[in-house]
TrEMBL record:
One BP annotation, GO: glutamine metabolic process
The protein's name: Carbamoyl phosphate synthase small chain
Subunit architecture: Composed of two chains; the small (or glutamine) chain promotes the hydrolysis of glutamine to ammonia, which is used by the large (or ammonia) chain to synthesize carbamoyl phosphate. Tetramer of heterodimers (alpha,beta)4.
Lineage, broadest ranks: Archaea, Methanobacteriati, Methanobacteriota, Stenosarchaea group, Halobacteria
EC number, UniProt record: 6.3.5.5
Record carries keyword Ligase: yes
Pathway(s) served: Pyrimidine metabolism; UMP biosynthesis via de novo pathway; (S)-dihydroorotate from bicarbonate: step 1/3; Amino-acid biosynthesis; L-arginine biosynthesis; carbamoyl phosphate from bicarbonate: step 1/1
Classification via CDD domains: GATase1_CPSase
Domain Carbamoyl-phosphate synthase small subunit N-terminal: 2-122
Entry function: Small subunit of the glutamine-dependent carbamoyl phosphate synthetase (CPSase). CPSase catalyzes the formation of carbamoyl phosphate from the ammonia moiety of glutamine, carbonate, and phosphate donated by ATP, constituting the first step of 2 biosynthetic pathways, one leading to arginine and/or urea and the other to pyrimidine nucleotides. The small subunit (glutamine amidotransferase) binds and cleaves glutamine to supply the large subunit with the substrate ammonia.
Keyword annotations: Amino-acid biosynthesis, Arginine biosynthesis, ATP-binding, Glutamine amidotransferase, Ligase, Nucleotide-binding, Pyrimidine biosynthesis
MF GO annotations: ATP binding; carbamoyl-phosphate synthase (glutamine-hydrolyzing) activity
Annotated spans, CPSase: 1-167
Amino acid sequence: MADAYVAIEGDRVIEARARAPGTARGELVFTTAYTGYEESLTDPSYEEQVLTFSYPLIGNYGVREERFESDRVHPRAAVAREMTDDVAEWLESEGIPAVDHLDTRDIVTEIRDEGAMKCGIAAGADVTEQDALDELHGCKHMSDHTDIGAQVSVDEVEVHNEGGDGATVALVDCGAKGSITESLVERDAEVHVFPYDASEDDVAAVDPDLLFISNGPGDPENFEQAGELVETYVGDVPLAGICLGQQVVANALGGETEKMEFGHRGVNQPVRDLRSNQVVMTTQNHGYTVADPGDKLDVTQVNVNDDTPEGLENDDLNIITRQYHPEANPGPHDSLGFFDDVLGMAGE
Ligand SMILES: NC(=O)CC[C@H](N)C(=O)O
C-alpha cells in the first residue's frame, strides 16, 4: 500500500513509497543528470522546487559532504524511481521529504507536455492523499517568491583567500554554488561574497576588479538590488554572471527575461559558441531565460537544442555571462575556461 503521494496540477494524485517523511510543496521540475545528485540537492538554485530525477537510480555512489554546493538541501522534496538508503537517510536527517517507487517517466512526460507545475507531496505512515492536495493548493508560483534571495544568500560579507595575489572579486550571492567561489580562489582571486541586497557603498568599499552576479533561485526580476549594482558599475568595472547572474545582467542593461516551459536541467546540454563554432557540453539548471538581450549585449553562445541564449558578451564594456554552470559541478569540465576569461577582463 502507498505511504506517499505526489499531487500535481489538475488535482491528479500519484502514489509512491515514502523514503523520508514529511509534507512539502514547490514547483515540480526534473533533471536528466545521471550523476551529481549531491550537487543538485545542495544547489541553492533549487530553493522552492521539488526535484524529480529522471535517471532511474539515485544514490549509487553514496553521499559525501565534499561534493556539497552549500550547507543544506534546497529542493523542498525529492522524487526518484529508486533512491538508495544513503540518499534517503541524508534527506530524512535534513527534514526533506523524499519518495520513490513511482513512474518518473510519467512525471517527466507530464512536465514536458504541460510545463513546470505546482505540486504537493505527503510522505510517511500517517499521510493521506488529501495532505498532498492541501500542499498543492497552498503552493505559490515561482515568481511570487519575491524575497527568495533572503532565503539563500549570506547574511554578512564573507571574504575568501584574503590577501590573494589575483583579482579582487565582488561576488553577489543570490544563492551561489560553493564551487563558483572555489573556481575563483583556485585562480588566486580574493573573493568578497556579498549578500544579495548589498548596496553600492558596500561593494565600493572593496574597490573590486570584477563584479560577479551568482546563480540563484526563482525569477531574476526579484533580484532588483543586484540589477542596480550592475547598472551602477557597468563600464567602470568588468561584469560577469552565471545563470541567474546572466538574467540579472540582461534585465539591468535593457534586456528581458521570460519563464521557459520546463527549463533546462541536466549535465549534457550542448552549447555552441557562435564565434568559434565549437560545441561544449554543459551542466544546467534554469527555468527562466533571456528573451531579449537588449542592445548592449551580444548573444555569443546558444543552446543547440532550442537556440536560447547561453552566453552574452560586450567586449568594450567587459561583460561575459553564461546561462549554464561553467563551474561544472558535477561536470562536464568543458567550460572551466570561463573563469580564466572573466579574470582576464579583471586584468589577471
Ligand atoms: N541556476 C540558476 O541560477 C537558475 C536561475 C533562475 N532561477 C532560473 O530558474 O532560470
